[in-house]
What does this fold into?
Amino acid sequence: MLLDIKSFDADVYHALTGGDLAPTLEFARRLDRLSTRMWIRYVLVPGWTDDLKAVDGLARFVAGLHGVEPADVLPFHKLGAPKYRQLGIPFPLRDTPVPDPALKSGERKVFRQRGASAY
It folds into this structure.
């Protein structure tokens, strides 16, 4: 099961998705109880999901799950921007920079320090 967790900060998660974080975490726990293998995906968006406290919380959460493949820490990109233009919708992250590679490396290190492997 591929599980994309947008943020471990409930306020940021709500701002990004319009939904609540709790059901996503409960779903991960349920998959864990069912011994379902999971691949956790986390997108690193500068100014949104790069807060080390939230990343540390997510890494601790992931480390507590048993069936998780290495977490995939992905750098934010703007490849979807043309789709927004075609639909006539403003791209909300237009002015957001792509993350520095060192930032991704640091986030992955946090996962490893908490006992969760990460790509």
